[in-house]
Amino acid sequence: MTVSEVLIQGPDPEVNPEPSESGEIAGRSPMRIAMDRLLSDKVAMICAGIVLLFVLIAIFAPLLCKLFGVEVRAGDPVTDTDSFNYPVIGPPNYGFTWEAPLGLEPNSGNDLLAEWFYGARTSLLVASIATIVSTVVGVVLGLIAGYSRGWGDRVVTFVTDLFLTLPFLLVAIAVSPMLVERWRDNPSMLDDASLIALIVILSVFGWMGLARLIRGEVISLREREFIEAAHVLGMPTHRILFKELLPNLVAPIVVSFSLSLPATIAAEATLAYLGVGVTGRPSWGQTILRAQNWFDEYPLFLYAPIIGIVVLVFALNLLGDAIRDAFDPKSFR
Amino acid sequence: MIGFVIRRLISAVLVLFVISVAVVALFTYGPSDPAQAMCPEPKCTAERQDAIRDALNLDAPIQVQYAEYMSGIVNGRQIAFGSEAYDCDAPCFGVSFIYRVNVWDDIKDRIGPTVSVAVGAGATILLIGVPIGMFAARRRGSAADKAVIGATLVIESIPYYLFVLLAFLYLAAGAGIFPQEGYHPLTDSPLKWAWGLLLPWLALGLVNSSKYARFTRGSMIEAFNQDYVRTARSKGLAESRIVNKHALRAAVVPIVTIFGIDFGSLLTGTIFTELIFGIPGLGLRALNAVGQSDLPVIEATTLISALIIVITNLLVDLFYSVLDPRVRLG
């Protein structure tokens, strides 16, 4: 690793370093210190557990559906709903049944538990990919802007400001049907196309904050001795950027990632509610849209996805705050 | 100061220029075919679609397209769809595919509601967030402070649209405390205007104010530790004067900056609020237009929203230099 990392590493006020076998104080990287602080933070660990639970639900959605004996998108409006479009089992008219623990959806008869499991899957899949892509874009553009003096910086800064000016939701709802229309003759492609459109839109509008942050960090780091040394040694620019600067930017990148993931999940649910990008796949946002007129008669229909979103976003937010504190040498908790 | 204003104006114009080029290019070369969107295949034959493409001049290069569109906004132009031609008076933002009228006539009455919602919600955010943050800052470390901070964290985790949706479902549609049909023009009756928009403002304002409460708190605490506040204290000034005159003046500057940057996302929240409350604004029109693939309307609403955001950012930047005694831009 780099010289600066050794310099940054100071005594940790909170966690006593575990004595190594010989009894000497072991040197630890800043990453290690942050991890130790995080692991000793109870709130963060509970939140991490909740997030992990959601991730497992998303990964094992098909298995969980089998376990509960439910099937996704298998509702039959004729047999599963009565003549008033109400479900024939479960709420709102009948009591709880293991056949459909969260009940069936009015009109379509789809099982809501399966819909919820797969909704978690869509939500986490889209948000994770979009956040990863926008993080990569933000880091690369921020590095370029910060390290290149003059035109490179000016162009990237202008583009950043430009994207901050665009009305996100309007562009999203305007562009996504354009992207999707390409595949409108091929229904099997349409599913993937709208998913990809959604990920593209969320990524394209997610990188600006991080790019600005990284640019600022790089501007201050590039004047430091170790970068100068690397420069004098004749190290190629890409090596300076990715081998020397990048390791010093791990903290802001991790913090930004962990705070933008919940924001992306919320944005995904918002767009899905508006019908952007999601067609065939179950999605919490879409379920909320269909459930809003039933809020009085069948609250469970509306609240299952709402609770899913709020709990997941809340846990991720608290976890993100804890990660920020863990990486911040000035914070004492 | 004048140099700064000029530089800021140039950059705003440049941003608008790039956005408008992008919007026009997306419309022309975007993945969706305007002729197909306007007149789908079973209704129109392939020849007729070709005629529409010809009439819209879709094969012309981008600078021609752009010049035509911009001159239409200034001078008006004639737009032909195949055999039919429409006079589109200035400012011409194109002719709606669905309603066959100048898009401007369609959307000009919708700017008012959108601005009403956004400005009212913005004011609500500051009116709720800043005082709460000041309150918490003056009592930092106390139980009240912790309760406020905890509450802001919880509120922030609820996506704003859920907040707005639940507020509408329970307070307007369910209990009927607030009116359901939201919008009356300000010029008709200011009282009806404010009463109809009160719940949208409160819902959108409350959910967004949590961030400002936390931010104000941090900013104020920082200001309290400054030398000039200590000086004011040692002079024996009243606490209220110290808080409101000395500390707040310094704390409010970063708040205004963040607020300016946030205005774009506030406009996003406005689109949502319009949809849920049925307020006939730009956002609702844009959503309908997307449903109908009415490209000129989408184009115009995007452009006008971008214009609103650019103007707000500009105003905030200018206001910023007036507000902060340390910023003297020469």
From TrEMBL, chain A:
Gene3D superfamilies: MetI-like (1.10.3720.10). It is a multi-pass membrane protein. It is found in: Cell membrane. It comes from the Bacteria. Keywords: Cell membrane, Membrane, Transmembrane, Transmembrane helix, Transport. Residues 1-25 are annotated as: Disordered. Residues 120-320 form the ABC transmembrane type-1 domain. It holds the Pfam family BPD_transp_1. The chain crosses the membrane at residues 43-64, 124-148, 155-175, 195-214, 249-274, 300-320. InterPro entries: BP-dependent_transpt_permease, MetI-like, MetI-like_sf, OppC_N. Belongs to the binding-protein-dependent transport system permease family. This is Peptide ABC transporter permease.
